[in-house]
Each structure stands twice: as C-alpha cells, then as structure tokens.
Amino acid sequence: MKKKRGISIYMMLILIALAPLLVGALVLTIVSASTLSSHMEENTYEKLEVACVSSAKYFEYDIDNDILSQDDESFAYVDSFLANDIDVTLFKGNERFITSLKKADGPFGRNIGTTADDAIYATVKSGKTVAKNNVVINGQKYFVFYSPIYDQNDQFWGMSFAGEPMATVEAAEKKVISTSVVIAVGVVILFALVAFFLAKLIATPMKQIADVSEELSQGKLNVSINAKSHVREIISMVDSTGALAKALNGAVGTVVTSADNLAVAVVEVDEKTTHNVESVSQINEAINEVAQTSQSVAESAQNMSEKAIELGDNIERLNENIAVLKNASDEIMVANNEASEYMDTVLKSSNDSVQAVTEISEKISATNDAVKDISESVQMIDDIASQTQLLSLNASIEAARAGEAGRGFAVVAESIKQLAESSSENAAKINDIVKKVTDISNETVQVAEKVKGIIESERGYITETQGKFTVLSGAVDESVAGITSISDMAAELDSIKNELTNATTDLGAISEELGASAEEVSASCSTVTVACTDTQAQTQEMRAINEHLTEAVSFFTL
Predict the structure, then answer these.
(1) Distance between CA 343 and CA 347 in Å, rounded?
(2) Which of 69, 76, 128, 420 has a CA between 20 and 30 Å from the CA of residue 405?
(3) Which are the contacts of 64, defined by CB distance < 8 A and separation ≥ 6?
(4) DSSP state string for 367-423
(5) End-to-end alpha carbon distance in the chain
(6) CA torsion 182→188→191→192, rounded to 10°?
(7) Alpha carbons 210 and 365: distance in angstroms, whole number
(8) CA nearest 442: which of 377, 365, 513, 515?
(9) Are 169 and 44 contacting, i.e. CB atoms less than 8 angstroms apart?
(10) Which strands form 95-99's sheet, in the order they lie side by side?
(11) What is the DSSP string of 97-109?
C-alpha cells in the first residue's frame, strides 16, 4: 500500500483553529501581565502617597503646637497601616521619630533614630516628593514615597514616609498573572474541544471522498460514496465524486468494446498494406538499377567533358605561356645585342682610361722631378742665406772696429743680416711646401697605379663577358626554335580537344535523357512506395495506439 504523505485535513483544521487561539492567548497573557504589573506599581505609589499624606495630616496639629510625642496612640496609628502591608514613618528632620518599622535593638523595639538616604532627604527638603522602588530598609527592598512636612510658619520640619515591601507587591503580581494564565488555559481548552468537534464533522466526509478518489486512481470504478455532511461545499463534492465514478464506468466500458473492434480492423489493413509494399519495392529496385546505370554513364560523360574543357584551358594557358616566352626571347635577343655593343664601348673606354691613367702617372713623375729641382734650389738659397748671415756678422765686427767711421757700414750689415734671416725663413717654408707636394704626388702616383690595375682587371672581365654574351645569343636562338615547335604541337592538341568535347557532349545528352526517364518512373514508384509505407506506418501506429488503449483500459475494473 502506498504510504500517505502530508498532514491529514483533520489535523490541519485543528491547527487552523488552535494556532491563532494559542498565539492570541499567549500575546494577551503577556500584554495583560505587563499592563497589570505597570498598573499595580502605579496603584502602589498612589496608595503610598495617600498613606503618606494621611499620616502627615494626622500629626499636623501636634507638630504645629509642638506637642508631638512617642506615645502608644501615635504608634497605634502608624501600626494601623500594617493591615494593608504599609509601613509609615514620621521623620523629624532626617531622623525617624515615629515609625511602624520594627527593629529589635531600637527604642520601643522600633527603627527609631535612624536616618533616610541623604539624596532622598535633600530632594524632600527642597520641597519635592520622592517615589521610587528598590530602596533597601532593614535589609529589605521597598516601594517608598516621601513627602515634606512644614510647621505653622511654613518652615521645613521633617518628612512623612510610607513604604510597602517589594516582595508583597511581586507576590500579588504573580498571583494575578497566574490567575490570568489559568483563565487563558481554560479558554484554550474549551475552544480546543469545540475545534476537535467541528474538525471531525468536516474531516470525516472529506476522508471518504479521498478514499473513493484513491480507489478511482487505482482503476476501481465499481465504487460508491455515502458520506453525509451539513456543509454545502462538501455535499457538492460528495455528489460530484459519485457522478464522476458512474461516468468513468460507462466511458471505460465503451472504450473497451471499441478497442476490440479496432484491433481486428487494424490487423486486416496491416496484412494488405504489407503485401502491396513488397510488390512495389521489387519494381522500384529494378527501376533504380536502370537509373543508377544511366546516372553512372552520365557522370562518366560529364567527367570526360570536364576533363576535355580542363585540357582546353591548359592548352590555352600553354599558348599564352609560349607567346610570353617568345616575346621574352625576342627581348633577350635585343638586350643581348645591345649589351654586346655596350661591352665594346666599355672596353674601348677602359683602354682610353688606361692610357689616361698612364699619362697622369707620367705627368705626376715629371712633377716630382720638378719638385726635386725646386727643393735643390731652395737648399741653395738656404746655403746662400747662411753665408750672407756669416758675411753680415763679419761686416758688423769690422764696422765695430772702425768705430764712428764704420757706423754706416754697420747699418748696411744689419740690413743684410735681416734679409738673410728672411730668406732663410722663406726657404724653410718653401721647403715644407715642397715636401707636402712631394708626399701628395707620391700618394697620387700610388692611386694612379691602383686605378691602372683595377682597369686592367676590368678589361679581363669585359673580355670574358663578351664571350658569355656570345654563348647566350646562341642559346636564345635555340630556345626560340623550341618555342616555335611547342606552339605547333599546342595547335594540334587544341583540335583534338574540340573533337573530344563534341563526342562527350553527345554522350552526356543521351545519358541524361535515359536517366531522366528512369528517374520519372522511379519517382512514380517511390510515390506509391511512400504511400504504402505511410499506410503501413499509420497501421502500425494504430496498432500501437490500440495496444496502449487496451492496456490502459485494462487498468480499470468494471
């Protein structure tokens, strides 16, 4: 049996009824307890204020007339408040004078002579009242209220005090809160009983409807439902479920009968369609063989035509290449002839250059000889200048010996000396210039020799190049003759290509006509085959549908 999931409607209805109730009761209890606690504290302070004011009024006459005494009547009055759990004290200044607070070691067994908290006393003395909690007196926490007392001259005399133990107030609060909780629990229990009863009234017929629906889902159509309810919607669901069971029973019975008849018809159609498909398939295979053969012939003819066209294209490209080669050969021939002429010119120029360089070298050698002659002449001038300087020196010595008579001769000797020195300096400069010219001439001679050697080498290369051009000219002539022969062969190939193209075109046309006829017949057979195949497929589909329908209907129990 399949395990049921989820929560029952019975429990759901109970939860719907009780959950808000529980939450509401809890919230109300908490709010009530908080409010009640606040109100009780306010009532406590009000009660303490009344007791405090009352005690002050009671002793007002004695205070005004200064006759207040610690007698039994006074203590009896303050003790009368103990019936309401209130302690009353009359302070004179900040000292307890009359009080109901008990203390074993105090005067009269009371807490007389002790003082209040300094902060509280200061506040009350300033004319204000004090109301607070958690004030410790005799080791016990109190709710307290202090009020100032004035004499007949409106002078501060003391304080009146009223206090109630916090334990007493808290006990009262707990009692009230516990009473509220008990009432809330009672209300919840009462409503829970009502919720259980109502949930049962609603859940019982719903459960019967669910049981019937489960039997219907299991294919059991021979079911009935007799659930009763006072809820309009549930009554409608019960009636609808019963009507659904009856309708399913009748519909499934009709489907079972129709499925049996359909199975017989489908078998007959399937057998006839299978026979037709086999016959048409045989015809189609034969036609397909003819079509394939025609197609093969057509493809072969097409391939031959394409190859012939490709051959023609190659021949055309060959003719183009031959023309290009012929033009290139002609250009090479012209260039070769021009290059030969240029080489003759270069060779002639090279011979002229060699001759010019030889003449330049000779001229430079002659220049060197002239420079050497100049150098020798400069040396002679230098020697003459040296001798002149020596002669000038001797003349100066002789003029010095002659004294006054040789002074004029001394001036001439000095001029000769300066001329000799100037000649010597100029001769040195000329000598330096001659040396530089000689160095440059020598370098020029070396360069001219190098140029002469290079030109001699070029003459050898030019001679060899002329020989190469001669060989190249012969090769170009042979190439032109070969290109002409290839051009003639290409023309013959083009003629053969044209004949082959015409033959393959005729063969392709015949093959295409034969293939087209075979394709038309094959298409007709294919159409018939497809129709039969579709009929057979539809028959198979109908058989599968009928089997599925029969299987589905077998799920139900009538």
Answers:
(1) 6
(2) 420
(3) 151, 152
(4) HHHHHHHHHHHHHHHHHHHHHHHHHHHHHHHHHHHHGGGGHHHHHHHHHHHHHHHHH
(5) 21
(6) -120
(7) 141
(8) 365
(9) yes
(10) 95-99, 87-92, 156-165, 140-150, 130-137
(11) EEE--B-TTSGGG
Whether 229 and 205 have beta carbons less than 8 Å apart is answered as: yes
> b or e along 199-212 (b: 16 or more beta carbons within 10 Å of the residue's beta carbon)?
beebbebbebbeeb
Q: What is the spatial distance between Cα 436 and Cα 95, in angstroms, rounded to a whole number? A: 142
Query: The tokens of 28 are what?
Result: 């109300």
Buried b or exposed e, range 328-348, using 16+ CB within 10 angstroms: ebeebbeebeebbeebeebbe
Type of residue at 377: S
Q: Which of 425, 423, 438 shows the shortest CA–CA distance to 373? A: 438
Q: Is the pTM of this model over 0.70?
A: no
**C-alpha dihedral over 40, 45, 49, 51, to 10 degrees?**
50
Task: Retrieve residue 287's tokens.
Answer: 């036609």
CA distance 17 to 493: 109
How many CB atoms neighbour CB 245 within 10 A? 19
pLDDT tens series, the chain, 558 aa: 455 666 777 677 788 877 887 887 788 778 776 777 778 889 999 999 999 999 999 999 999 888 888 898 999 999 999 999 999 999 999 999 999 988 756 667 788 888 899 999 999 999 999 999 999 888 889 999 999 999 888 899 999 999 999 988 888 878 888 887 888 888 888 888 887 777 777 777 777 777 777 777 777 777 777 767 777 777 777 778 777 777 777 777 777 677 677 677 667 757 776 776 676 577 567 557 756 766 775 676 677 677 767 767 776 786 787 677 778 777 867 777 777 777 778 678 777 777 777 787 777 778 778 778 777 877 887 788 788 878 778 878 877 887 777 777 677 778 877 877 887 787 788 778 778 877 877 877 787 778 778 777 777 776 777 777 677 677 667 776 776 776 777 677 677 667 767 766 765 675 677 567 657 756 766 775 776 677 777 777 777 877 777 777 676 666
Asked if residues 431 and 449 have their Cβ atoms less than 8 Å apart, the reply is: no
Alpha carbons 352 and 344: distance in angstroms, whole number: 12
> DSSP strand E in 176-324: where?
none
Q: How is 208-242 classified by DSSP, letter by letter? A: HHHHHHHHHHTTB-S-------S-HHHHHHHHHHH
d(CA 483, CA 316): 15
Residue 376 and residue 383: Cα distance in Å, rounded? Answer: 11
